[in-house]
Amino acid sequence: MDKKDLPEFSVLPRHVGIIMDGNGRWAKKRGLPRYKGHIEGAKTFRKIGEFAGDLGIECLTFYAFSTENWKRPPEEVKAIMDLFREYLKELDDRKAENEEKGIKVNFIGDRTGIPKDILAMMKHSERITAKKDHVILNIAINYGGRQEILHSVKELAKDVEKGKLKAKDITMDMIDAHLYTAGMPDPDLIIRPSGEYRISNFLLWQSAYSEFWYSDVLWPDFTEENFVEALRAYEHRNRRFGGV
Ligand code: FPP
Q: Based on C-alpha coordinates, what's the Rg of the chain?
């Protein structure tokens, strides 16, 4: 979309989380192997990421691979890993362009178990974009919300063990500070396409007051117009955070 044609909104979410669902069904509908759906899904990820950045959304979190996704057939897992490799290489190739846009890339999830070459590329991408903060692009890989909370609690327990902290003094802010998203705003809006109405272990702690928007569109078919629809719906939500 041309910059001058970008829609305007009375209120924009600061942080949008997206569960990229429906790749497998998209492929199945066309008689293609599932991995082809992930290839298309990765294209949608690039398109929507770029569009959201152009609209001025500060923080985006894409759910790319959950802690449970290792259970998929090995050829599917390999295809997704190869898509990560391709994208991570592209981040390096397009360093100057991303720098200009102020994109900071950040990976959330458990880093153990991720192939070494991908891990090295992830660290490299984070390093080369570390000084930017116009748009934070979180990519959740080997991510699970419960695991993230457990990780935070274990970090705090270490301080208790060392006598640096008393259990009774643990606060919600402390739990927050040890999450992978520490320092970032909570997601205001979570988008799930493909007709499923589940949170699937995504940003469990952070989504306590998030608005949800669902769509039947499969992720590879998800367009900028669909994203605008979600933002329009958000514009009309009355957020009360438990108040009246
Ligand atoms: C869920 O759809 C999707 C995934 C488990 C993988 C998502 C990964 C990508 C879109 C590639 C991301 C690439 C980069 C570069 C970040 P599904 O397979 O569960 O769909 P289904 O419910 O229709 O089977």
A: 18
